[in-house]
Amino acid sequence: MPKLCLDDRAIISLSGKDAEALLQGLITTDLGALAEDEVRPGALLTPQGKILFDFLISRDGEALRVETSLDQVEALLKRLTMYKLRSAVELSLLTPAPVAVVFGEERPDSSYRDHRFEKAGLPVFRLYRSIAGAKASVADYDRLRIATGVAAVNRDYALQDAFPHDVLMDLNGGLSFRKGCYVGQEVVSRMQHRGTARRRVVIVASEAELPPTGTSLAINGRPIGSLGTVQGKAGLAIVRIDKAGEAIAKGDPILAGEVPVTLKLPGWTGLAFPAEADEASA
């Protein structure tokens, strides 16, 4: 059973009688749907609906645990403190935090189901403690993310540059359209109801080694996105799926730099490239 310890994570703990109400009115995740034994993705958005901070959230007894990257945590803590005002909420910071990832059929004790991978049909668990025998590598974890279309900030997208729909939060349990108002909610709800989300995570494959992260993906010289996480001949990207769908339907090549690639939407999402969906309904 592969085990991996992450060394770039930090945790903000929120406790007190107003902690859940405070977060429920700020973040994209519906805390009412958050089970005791799972971790879900979430974000704090800009008023324009883009991801300002991203994180994973879980319950820790009576407290709420917000796991994020080390490079985000100080600014996120400052922002939460600003919103707290006189609410009965205590904020505490653990940095760096012991975070482990276990992927395999057997569930470790005191672990949390990672809802993102669970949606893709894979058993992946997070633990908030040190573990022995952690021999898996970040590359192993990246391969798992690529296979399932699970994007990572600063690897596949930049903060304040992506909408939650772009990184599949509308499908992986990280974005609620029912719980009421939160920062940026009006924008993402409008995207949902009008069906205007056109940028999506895709799985990129090639017969040759892919070029590095950041390389443009283009059709006839026109960019539709750029490579994110890359592992050999496979990778992730966030692209305009309407443009990609047109190219696929016409047989136009899609290039990552000079390398021909194929694009696939993660199967668990139920999404299709628009041109393919049009053909299927014809």
TrEMBL record:
What biological-process terms (Gene Ontology) are attached? iron-sulfur cluster assembly
The CAF17 C-terminal domain is annotated at: 198-269
Query: SUPFAM superfamilies from the xrefs?
Result: Folate-binding domain
Which Gene3D superfamilies does this one have? Probable tRNA modification gtpase trme, domain 1
Keywords in alphabetical order: Transit peptide
The superkingdom listed in its UniProt entry is Bacteria
Pfam families from the xrefs? Beta-barrel_CAF17_C (PF25455)
Under the heading NCBIfam families, the entry gives: ygfZ_signature
- In its UniProt entry, what is this protein called? Folate-binding protein
Organism equals: Rhizobium fredii
Q: What is the lineage of its organism?
A: Bacteria, Pseudomonadati, Pseudomonadota, Alphaproteobacteria, Hyphomicrobiales
